[in-house]
Amino acid sequence: MRSIARLSSTGETLFFQLPTPLLLVKKLTTLTVLPNQPPNSIRQTNQSSTFIHTQHQQPFFKHQNLFYGKLFAQLKSPPHLFEAKRLHALLIVNGFFHPTSVDKVFGSQLVNIYVNFGCFQDALLVFDELPQKSNIAWNALLRGFVDMGQFSEAIQFYYLMLSQCINPDNFTYPLALKACSGLSALEEGRRVLELIQFNETQHNIQRNIYVECAVIDMFAKCGNLIEAWTFFEEMSRKDLASWSAMICGTVHNGEWLEALFLFKRMRFEGIGPDSVIVAALVPVCGRLEARYMGMTLHGCSVRSGFESDLYVSNALIDMYGKCGDTHDAHCIFCNMVYRDAVSWSTLIAGYAQNCMYLESFEVYLEMKSAGLRTNAITAASALPGLTNLKLLKQGREMHGYILKQGFEYDAVVASALIDMYTKCGSMREAEHIFEMALERDITTWNSLIVGYVLYGDLDLALGIFRRIWETKLRPNSITLVSILPLCTRMGTLGLGKEIHGYATKSSLKEVVSVGNSLIDMYCKCGYLELGVKIFNQMMVKNIVTYNTVISAHGIYGLGEQAFSIFEQMKEARIRPNKVTFVALLSACSHAGLIDRGFLLYNSMIDDYSIQPEMEHYSCMVDLLGRAGNIDDALNFIRRMPVEPDINILGSLLSACRVHNNVELAELVGEHILQKNLKDSGYYVLLGNIYASTKRWKDVSKIRTLIKEKGLIKKPGSSRIQVGGCNHIFHARGIMHPQLNKIQEILKSLLLEMKDEGYMPDQSSCSHDLAIDANELINLDSE
């Protein structure tokens, strides 16, 4: 091995390893050799001893020019490597590598040829032996370093080029800038730009559009979107390539709405998109769940004639899957002429994301039967289907395959495995996979957080969330959507507000699912006005957004406001689903709007072709029961085409208790007891009804049933955050450190209520609690 040593911009010596000399073709008789001397030494012989007649010079130079022209044409694009080596030998024989050769074209072009064929070591050898080197040779080696991903070496080679007083050209700059992008070396990229601008002002060397696009791409990939924007706006002319660079860079930085705005602006200026822009923007519509915009881009791709482009088709499958339209995703997949592993994996993942796990598994089996090999992406896409279909045996087989192929080190695969084991209740295995993962991306952390939530360990879930901040990673939209509901359940509103602030600063608030989670958190924590404020600020809203706000207003008893939002939803051309009508009927129930409830119930069936399910029946029974129309509720249940489930019977039983209809309660209670329930709540409810009418024998029977069935009533609990500290209260709990102080305040409040004429409503609480409240008052009054 040989090496060439060069000085870098920092003064360090750089070494580039070269291979042993090439074995040249031995039989040179098949090669074309130029007669007489090499081109640079033709006139080096003693002119006194050499006399060339004028009549002989013209045929000689004519033959020489013909030879050079033919050689140059062959060097442009040899069909295979063997031809390149033949041309290499030809250049050696004809003196192009002679130290006195002045040629800069042919040898440099040979370097370019070897780089094109992927023979980088051969290119380095030829480069080192060239007596004269043009920009073609320098740029070829620079491109070779970049293509191999050796970005540090590419930047060093760029500075070596400068140290040899070689002026970079418009082919050099994009390569150097791409190397800076690969290393996220923003300062190095700025230095390259400074040289571009210096040569432009001092030497009038004008940059072209490729250089400008490379500058935009460099700034964007280095995370400095502001400088990319500034450079883009200063460009005198913007063609499709520059718009593509700016839009793709904006997408790369997660500024999805800005990317869509740029696209609209580009279209307004009369520039049509290409497949690259569409393939970049369509997934953005999926992430924002902006289905209408995604359909617009789909139509644009059809009109422009690149809907059959592989990358565009894969992006469309992804978008429709994320927007919940698996039918259109499957249609695009079926119409594809060529499908790669990404196509199959995207459709598999799309079905899984929409809880269509059987379809996801069937597509995976179809892919295997088509002879395609399962790669890491496919494995990660197929695992959710296996998990939710409870195919643990197949899931473990997939885990074994992953281990054999070495896919377990892939962060996405590790996340899918963690998700599988957590949903199967094997937290120990999930934790083991997490700890063994060499590289953990944010998806891996998210999977463990969700696992702890499913396992019921909310404190550990929050602990994992806090550990993320100790790494270089930052929470993404999935992280926030997983954590925000915990803030509601644990009463940590302060943490919820901090997450809201982070979502705003990081632009994650623009993600529809994050906005929906923030609305849900604030509304459930008693801050309806903040939830509505976020709703009004959201640029993109989906069906979940409207359902969340409608449901929140219903819980607060604001029926008319809920109906107003429903009208806004229809104006936005979002079709209501079954969840929408559950929220609307629940709003009617809380507001006591019986007639409006029946209108909506009939509209759901007649106008939207949504057949009632148990949730709708339960809402109607609750609506009638809350209003005291117990008989109407009973008749509604009798007219149902299906047998009522426990929730419907429970709604009727609750209404009987509120309105003191013991006879019907007893009848409903018998039906409930016949179902042999594992939930003790309905037994307790029936027992309290008996207790309210002093039917102590029946109360005793219920208690005996509970004991015989081994049912345990989980005590109620509540949480509140005070001064950054979480306080948990359990029913009948006596372990709180400030219990005595709490009891003193409670006694004081009860006495004040008694002085103002209020007495406990014992019919609205359990029998035991009623006795405790009464004793508390009597004890203090004594």
UniProtKB/TrEMBL annotation:
UniProt GO molecular function: mRNA binding
Keywords noted in UniProt: Repeat
Keyword Ribosomal protein among UniProt keywords: no
Residue ranges crossing the lipid bilayer per the database entry: none
Entry-linked PANTHER family: PENTATRICOPEPTIDE REPEAT-CONTAINING PROTEIN, REPEAT-LIKE SUPERFAMILY PROTEIN, PUTATIVE-RELATED
NCBIfam families given in the database record: PPR
Protein name, per record: DYW domain-containing protein
Organism lineage string: Eukaryota, Viridiplantae, Streptophyta, Embryophyta, Tracheophyta
